[in-house]
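Order emerges. For instance:

***
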Amino acid sequence: MEDRQIIELFKERSEQAISELSKKYGPLCRSVAFGILKDERDAEECANDAFLGAWNTIPPFEPENLQTYVLKLIRNQAIKRYEANTAMKRNSIYDVALDELEDCFPDASSVEDEVEAKEVARAINRFLETLDKQDRIMFIRRYWKAETVESLAAELNRTNHYISVRLSRIRERLKKYLKKEGIFL
């Protein structure tokens, strides 16, 4: 079923909307959540919560891109679950991935910084368009899906060292790109 048709089902308040959304994007959503949480049951619960979130927000909101919208919902649910699960713990795989990116972004500490955060997001998207396909895939899988260096190396048939060095170079390029765009750390 096409995204537009699924959105229409949501607008009609048809329960079939959630079923169609789950059928089309369920495996992808669970994969994103699992990448962050490393737990199948938590990933499944986050997917269900994200689908409920879509039910509660469509309408009045009508996303331009349903896949992007649902992936944002699932990622937010997974991060909330992750934070709850690790409130007193540190050094999980997701923390390590976020720590690697820490020097690339300004600290957002006030509501006014939200506007700047959106500009940073747009700048990152422009930066990702400058990368070759393999670098872009590595970056997104490492820093958006929180995949380990080891799993990337195994899947890309490279060494852990190669992946680590490559990601380090991409982060350095990102820092330079953000400075060039007027986003200072």
